[in-house]
Design a protein that fits this description.
mainly alpha, about 170 residues
Length: about 170
């Protein structure tokens, strides 16, 4: 138990520091007035074991999202998007379940499954997260084109960073 808490605690600190100290500081230049916002911190929720209870998943997502919101001065936007992603995670996992099933006690990583499966899983999770996040930033359907463009640009950069992060660190769990 202590080893698991330490491992996920270290991952939490690493992802938060990378998000806030590196990715927040890099401007991913405008296309008109549209910016791409790369995010890697959703990996914290994505990599949790399958057996993680829904309640714990939502509480962790809310707490971690609020902490990121504190650094981004956007109270509630990151928390709501991360909770939305955590809420959809069990349904998405049922839909993407591999033929041999999941190993319930272990995290959802490239080493446990394969690169293709993880890339599909990460792509869906990031797409849901970013669409909700960008919708909450604007909070009106008037800017639908801007929301979709921002989501696409953010998805490309976020997915690239998530896959690089996973391939460099390549955690077992």
């Amino acid at each position: 138990m202590n080893n698991i808490v330490l491992k996920y605690g270290l991952r939490f600190v690493l992802l938060l520091l990378f998000q806030v100290l590196v990715l927040k500081q890099i401007p991913f230049g405008p296309i008109g007035s549209i910016w791409a916002d790369p995010f890697v911190y959703p990996l914290l929720i994505m990599l949790l074991p399958v057996k993680t209870s829904k309640e714990l998943l939502l509480i962790l997502a809310f707490g971690f999202g609020l902490l990121v919101d504190a650094f981004y001065d956007s109270w509630g936007v990151h928390a709501s998007a991360l909770v939305f992603m955590a809420f959809l995670r069990p349904a998405l996992l049922r839909r993407l379940e591999p033929q041999r099933g999941y190993t319930l006690n272990y995290g959802l990583t490239i080493r446990r499954y394969n690169l293709i499966w993880f890339a599909g899983y990460a792509a869906w999770m990031l797409a849901f997260f970013l669409l909700f996040y960008n919708s909450m930033l604007v909070f009106t359907p008037v800017y639908t084109v801007e929301i979709l463009l921002r989501t696409f640009l953010s998805f490309v950069t976020s997915f690239l960073f998530v896959m690089i992060f996973m391939l460099i660190f390549n955690p077992l769990d």
